From TrEMBL:
The protein, known as: Dipeptidyl-peptidase
GO terms (BP aspect): peptide catabolic process; proteolysis
Keywords: Aminopeptidase, Hydrolase, Protease, Serine protease, Signal
Source organism per UniProt: Sorangium cellulosum
Family per similarity comment: Belongs to the peptidase S46 family.
Taxonomic lineage of the native organism: Bacteria, Pseudomonadati, Myxococcota, Polyangia, Polyangiales
Length: 753
């Protein structure tokens, strides 16, 4: 179900965030054979991955190709999200993961553990830097009140129930609201009497297909083992989005439930969850050309968007996003240098912004310098010509592209104002909390079905937990400073495009940076909302009349901002209401033009992508990259200083050649990371990488800079996924960290300590 608040979407108007996160790679390009494998035994045509993050139900169409590439399991299993191996794949609500033991052990990426580590860190016990290993299950640390594991249990097509007769509904906003009512009814019926279940509505192909998804929501998640930052984030931003990589980007959590194996709130006497399926470690070595598959929950791609949307991204959205990240990172890093506690609180945000900054630059480079924006526009012109030449096609699809462009242009008229307010609300987290309190007070008196989706009773616990969790990452200096930065950026706009909040802060004075900064300081000095208990109490009990009587300056500011936020939401809803009629026509034309095989854009739901282990040429006149990196390269790269500060225990084990059974015969040493030609994006971080037997061979965690714009247009020759190799994961656990219990639990055999 769509969620519209600027706060919930963190830079909704400006940032449809799509990125993976820090990731792995060889010292220099190495010449090698990257000829793709033949499409099948005895067939001459090589396999060239066309891209696609496929719905499980679409996998039946790929049976012949998968078997030709060497699939050894029943291809039908990949079409069933409740069977093995897909039944072991889970979502963490932003990252992907998978069960790797019968006792609820979960494997994901190191960078997906940042929030949990920050929640448990202090300047004296810095888990963000040092990692964490629970020697016993009693030592496994709670990841915090907002940590979740979602286990998909069922999909149901509800397209007819959601879209029935929507063309007859007059008015775009009314159409949107009627569709939302239908979605809320479906979700309510799905969850009724089943508190352990979380249901949601997902739209595909521009809204032309709608599914009701049922998931088990596990609320007690605990840290089991996260390696040192010098392993998990080796190379940092210098290596991020680059090959070669040498990052051990892996981590382990455990899902806990009540004694009846059903989800329960965090409690000391909860027990490990017993999943229906879990993945097994690969039993055969991985080689160049081998079939690999990734199953996970990719977040956002833009391949079914129009040329008008590409142009907006290139000329406005991405440049604005880059400047926001650059300024925010510089500010937060400076604050962290002055105060160790501020560094810990700000680190997850810095890491996330740094990652998104690099990807956004890469997408901008690919769309502009790489010519993909022009290519996208050219393809759209070809599509229009194909539609116009045939009367039947013109009747079905004619005018759709032009109608989308016109509606999009109208929606973009307030983009500067809306983006500025979005930046402020995502930067000033205490103001964000105050607006949540105001909106909750407005929504609580309504019947539950009439409330905005975010404020329905099914979400009250989440809203309360968010306020509790905020306390671990909130710092007045950080919040004040980022608030001031966002206001400073808004001051650069034409006065008529500035949010009214700026004038409210100025209080009739000149709108200068100094005056607004002083006003912000006064608000923080006078508010009581820095106390989590006070926020939760107001969230649960405050009425609108009581809030209007409040003298708290943060509440008073929130009362002024809330109506503006709702006006933006109304514009967004009307735009989407218009798109529900026209966007499916455009996508159907695109599907027919491409011959029927079309993957929907990523939207955070379960997908499967497949391909082969394969290198690439970063440039036409450069040698081909070998698709594996190895341990000796990491040792050479290590300097002892971040981000190339591999722990001494790792360097000692490598120098002493304590490799055990983790050596690859062809490479002659322990592999660290590998490349594939798979198609992934943000949200795939932590996704299980499977071999032809459906066994775990690694975890996807990154892509390559040259192909960042593949979120808009897939580029088979250079689009690559970077994975951490399971053999390196096992070697680190065995030879470096002493994580023998974890290794044994997932089916390995420690031999080196």
């Amino acid at each position: 179900m769509l969620h519209f608040t600027l706060r919930g979407h963190a830079l909704l108007a400006l940032f449809a965030l799509s990125a993976l996160a820090p990731g792995c790679g060889s010292e220099r390009p190495q010449a090698g054979d990257t000829k793709p494998p033949a499409s099948g035994p005895g067939q001459g045509a090589p396999f060239e991955n066309p891209g696609g993050m496929w719905l499980p139900e679409q996998m039946a169409q790929h049976k012949d190709q998968l078997e030709a590439l060497g699939l050894e399991i029943d291809a039908g299993a990949l079409a069933d999200p409740t069977a093995s191996p897909l039944g072991a794949v889970v979502s963490l609500g932003g990252c992907s993961a998978s069960f790797v033991s019968a006792d609820g052990l979960i494997a994901t990426n190191h960078h997906c553990s940042t929030r949990a580590l920050q929640y448990n860190s202090t300047p004296e016990q810095d888990l963000l830097t040092n990692g964490y290993l629970a020697r016993t299950r009693a030592e496994e640390r709670w990841a915090g009140p907002t940590a979740r594991v979602f286990v998909t249990r069922a999909f149901r097509d509800v397209t007819g129930e959601v879209r029935r007769d929507i063309a007859s509904i007059p008015g775009d906003l009314a159409r949107y609201e009627e569709i939302e009512k239908r979605k809320k009814r479906l979700v309510a019926a799905c969850e009724e009497g089943r508190p352990e279940v979380r249901c949601s509505i997902a739209e595909y192909f521009g809204g032309g297909k709608v599914s009701l998804i049922e998931q088990l929501e596990i609320k007690d998640v605990r840290i089991v083992y996260v390696p040192h930052e010098g392993i998990g984030n080796f190379g940092g931003d210098i290596d991020n989005w680059r090959w070669p990589r040498h990052s051990g980007d892996f981590a382990f959590f455990r899902a806990y439930v009540g004694k009846d194996n059903r989800p329960a709130s965090h409690a000391e006497d909860n027990v490990p969850y017993r999943p229906a399926h879990h993945l097994k470690i690969a039993s055969a070595p991985l080689n160049q050309g081998d079939l690999v598959m990734v199953a996970g929950y990719p977040g956002t791609t833009n391949r079914l968007r129009t040329a008008a949307e590409v142009e907006s991204a290139v000329s406005w959205q991405y440049p604005k996003r880059v400047s926001f990240y650059e300024e925010s990172i510089a500010l937060l890093e400076d604050l962290g240098k002055r105060d160790p506690e501020a560094r810990i609180k700000a680190q997850p945000t810095i890491q996330g912004y740094s990652n998104y900054l690099l990807k956004t630059r890469g997408m901008l480079d690919g769309l502009v310098e790489g010519g993909l924006a022009r290519e996208k526009a050219k393809l759209e012109e070809e599509l229009k010509a194909w539609i116009d030449v045939d009367p039947a096609r013109k009747a079905a699809h004619g005018g759709a592209i032009e109608q989308i462009a016109a509606a999009y242009a109208e929606h973009q008229k307030t983009r500067e104002h809306d983006a500025a307010l979005s930046e402020i609300l995502s930067s000033a987290r205490l103001l964000d909390a105050a607006i949540t309190i105001v909106r909750m007070a407005e929504e609580r008196p309504k019947a539950d079905a009439e409330r905005e989706a975010e404020f329905q009773q099914r979400n009250w616990e989440r809203l309360e937990q968010a306020q509790v969790s905020l306390q671990k990452s909130y710092g007045r200096t950080i919040d004040q400073s980022t608030f001031k930065l966002a206001v400073k950026r808004a001051l650069r706009l034409d006065p008529k495009e500035r949010p009214a909040l700026i004038a409210s802060l100025a209080g009739g004075q000149a709108q200068t940076e100094a005056a607004l900064g002083a006003a912000i300081d006064a608000i923080y000095a006078g508010t009581a909302l820095e106390d989590a208990a006070a926020r939760v109490k107001l969230l649960k009990t405050a009425t609108v009349d009581e809030l209007k009587e409040s003298r708290d300056p943060m509440i008073r500011l929130a009362l002024e901002v809330a109506p503006v936020e709702k006006a933006i939401e109304a514009r967004d809803k009307a735009y989407l209401g218009a798109m529900t009629l026209v966007k499916p026509r455009f996508v159907e034309a695109l599907r027919a033009y491409r011959g029927g095989m079309l993957a929907p854009d990523a939207n955070g739901t379960l997908r499967v992508t497949y391909g082969t282990v394969r290198g690439y040429k970063p440039e036409i006149d450069r040698p081909v990259y070998r698709p594996f990196t190895v341990l000796s390269e990491l040792v050479k790269k290590s300097t002892g200083e971040p981000p190339f500060n591999a722990p001494e225990a790792l360097l000692d084990a490598a120098r002493e050649k304590r490799f055990g059974p983790y050596v690859d015969d062809d490479l002659g040493e322990v592999p660290v990371c590998f490349l594939s030609d798979l198609d992934i994006t943000n949200g795939n971080s932590g996704s299980a990488t499977l071999n032809a037997r459906g066994e775990l061979v690694g975890l996807a965690f990154d892509g390559n800079y040259e192909a960042m714009a593949s979120d808009w247009l897939f580029m088979p020759s250079i689009t690559r996924t970077i994975h951490v190799d399971h053999r390196y994961m096992q070697w680190v656990m065995d030879a470096v960290s002493g994580a023998d219990a974890v290794l044994k639990e997932m089916g390995g055999t420690p031999v080196l300590q």
